[in-house]
Amino acid sequence: MAYQIAPASLGQTPRRRHPVFGPGRFRVGDAVMVALYLLLMVAGGASLIMALPGFAGAFRNEEAALFAVNLIAYMVLFTGAMIMAFKTLKNSARTFRYNPWAKWFLVPGTWFGSLMVTAILLTLMGQAVKSENQLAIEGMTREIPFTTMFFVAVVMGPLVEEYIFRHLLIGKLSRKLNVWVCVVISIILFAGIHFVGSGSFEITSAIPYVTLGAVISVAYVLSGRSMAYSYVLHFFNNAVALSVSYTLLPLLQS
C-alpha cells in the first residue's frame, strides 16, 4: 500500500494524503479464478448441474432449480474470491478513514446519480428492453425468499464481480496498461457479461449496466483502488434493486 504525499510549505511536515491500495501481482490463484468464472458464468458450465440425475426434479419449478444452480456457482466463486482477495478487501476498507462523511454520502449519492444518468439516456434513446438476466431475476423473486436471494444477489454476486472486474481487470491489469484503458475494458466486459447466453442484445437494456460499471470503476480508481469501497457501492445498488423487486414490483404488476 502506497501513500500520496502532499507538498509542504517550507518548514512544515508533509501531509499524508489518501493511500493507494496496491492490488499486488497477478497470481496463479487469480488465473484459476478467472478460468472458473469463464467456465461457470460465461461458457455455461454451471448449467450442467441441471443435467445431474434427479437435480431438476428436486425443485418445485424451473425458477427454483435455476436459482439453486446460481447458488452453487456463486458459492464456489465467492469462496475462491475471498481466499484470493480477503487481505486486499480488509486493507482497502481503510479508505473510509479518509473523508469518511464524503465517502459514505457518495454511496447513495453515486447510486442516485447513476440512476438519473440512466433515466436521461433512456429518455433520449427510447424505452429500455429488459435483459434476459433481469427477467430471470424477476422470475426468481416470485419463488425464492428475500433473505436467500439477498445472500446471492447482494452479498456474494457483487463480491465476485468486484474481484473480477475491478480488482483484477483494473487493479492488477493496470500494472501493464494505462488505468483508464483498463476502466473502459472493465465497463465493457461488466456490461457484456449480463447478456451472455441470452441470444439477444438491445443497446437500451445495456445502458443500466454500462452506467453502473462506469460509476463503480471510476470510484474504485479515485478511492485508491479500494476493492472495499467498490464492493460497498455494488452492494448498495443491488440491495436497493432487490428490495424494489420484492416490494414495489409486485404492486405495479398487480
TrEMBL record:
Highest taxon listed in the record's lineage: Bacteria
Database matches in InterPro entries: CAAX_protease (IPR052710), Rce1/LyrA-like_dom (IPR003675)
GO biological process, one term: CAAX-box protein maturation
Residues of the CAAX prenyl protease 2/Lysostaphin resistance protein A-like domain: 146-240
Keyword ATP-binding found: no
Any matching Pfam family: Rce1-like
Protein name: CAAX prenyl protease 2/Lysostaphin resistance protein A-like domain-containing protein
Organism expressing this protein natively: Paeniglutamicibacter cryotolerans
